[in-house]
């Protein structure tokens, strides 16, 4: 109601609303909305929210400000930090994992080794399902080791994998296991078929992240290699292999290899349109060429 009356006055004579009367409430609603997307918005993302606010409610412009929303941008930034502190007190996993008590002694600085989504990941570190804890979900994981070996058991495996999703995310984000260790604990996440060529297996050990193409009987078999482990085979075509490889970077919380960073960011930001606010000069140049 306050914003509605403020807009009526603005359209009538251009008068601005007294920001201080609504700033706290507006900020509180905005940070809750931002949190549904990410607990750690970038500066560009916060600025885009502030700009959108002023675009919708120009009566909230700040007198004397060139952009009209710089003060909103800064207050949102600090309000978001305060919101994270409140969430951490209640044990919200995505922010609680970055408290000093949960960091290694050598990393106990607020801005050091912050665990947060870096590739627009959704459900980066979700809480455990209601009524479940780490021990109960680990029992489900142990049962999965047996269920995955049974034939025609896809429905049961899918249900247990869905139920233990939060546990997998906690392990991969907080413990940072190797791909080989994670595959031993969660074989259902991977296709267990392996290429039977001994020379191929040895050559794959050298690769951190790769889509391998093996030719056999005039047919191409596309597989995915992570940290020297062939984790999935029989993908059919290169397009599907690329999509699944990007899925693995989320499922295993992997960092893009330095020599392939631009390639993977092009897949992510230009083709999948995830986290498009931050484009490197090279990606921006490619985007301009594609648009033209």
Which segments are poorly predicted (pLDDT under 50) over 5 or more consecutive residues? 191-197
Mean pLDDT: 86
| Physical arrangement of strands within the biggest beta sheet | 1-2-3
> Alpha-carbon distance between the termini?
45 Å
Helix content: 40-55%
How many E-type strands? 3
Label this structure with key terms.
3 strands, single chain, 13 helices, 51% helix, 3-stranded antiparallel beta sheet, mainly alpha
Mind explaining what this structure looks like?
Residues 101-134 are annotated as: Disordered. This is Sterile alpha motif domain-containing 3-like isoform X1. The structure is a single chain. The protein is mainly alpha-helical. It has 3 domains: 2-104, no CATH class; 134-189, no CATH class; 198-291, no CATH class. Helices cover 51% and strands 7% of the residues. It contains 13 helices and 3 strands, in the order ααααααααααβββααα. It has helices at 2-13, 23-35, 43-56, 70-89, 93-96, 134-147, 154-163, 165-175, 179-185, 198-204, 238-251, 261-271, 281-291; strands at residues 209-216, 219-226, 229-232. The chain has a 3-stranded antiparallel beta sheet with strand order 1-2-3. Helix 2 crosses helix 4 and helix 6 (134-147) runs antiparallel to helix 7 (154-163). The two termini are 45 Å apart.
